[in-house]
């Protein structure tokens, strides 16, 4: 029995769903990071580095999905 699998093809990915997942993880993850900071050592606000950087990543993800759409013509 021979089963041929074409590993070069990728499954269809919904970019809007990927963005929604990224946004939900950000909305739950950023407050969790701030909570960890608040419950531990509050001498230096280290989430001030990660939260805006992550927000910029979410912004660029939004722009890539909704503003600069790729055409689906092949």
Task: Please sum up the structure shown.
The chain is mostly helical. It has one domain.
Strand content: under 5%
**SS field, number of helical segments:** 2
Going by helix content, strand content and strand pairing, the class is mainly alpha
Global mean pLDDT:
89
Largest β sheet strand count, sense and barrel closure: none
Kindly give the count of domains.
1
The outline comes out as elongated
Query: How many E-type strands?
Result: 0
Indicate the radius of gyration in whole angstroms: 19 Å
The protein's oligomeric status is single chain
- Which residue ranges are poorly predicted, with pLDDT under 50 across at least 5 consecutive positions? none
Distance between the termini: 34 Å
What order do the SSEs take from the amino end to the carboxyl end, as H and E?
A: HH
Helix content: 55-70%
Notes on the structure:
This protein has one domain (15-66). With 74 residues, it is an all-alpha fold. The radius of gyration is 19 Å and the shape is elongated. The protein has two helices and no strands.
């Amino acid at each position: 029995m021979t089963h041929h699998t074409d590993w070069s093809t990728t499954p269809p990915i919904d970019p809007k769903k990927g963005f929604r997942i990224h946004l939900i993880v950000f909305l739950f993850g950023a407050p969790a990071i701030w909570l960890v900071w608040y419950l531990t050592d509050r001498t230096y606000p280290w989430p001030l580095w990660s939260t805006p950087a992550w927000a910029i990543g979410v912004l660029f993800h939004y722009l890539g999905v909704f503003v600069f759409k790729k055409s689906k013509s092949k």
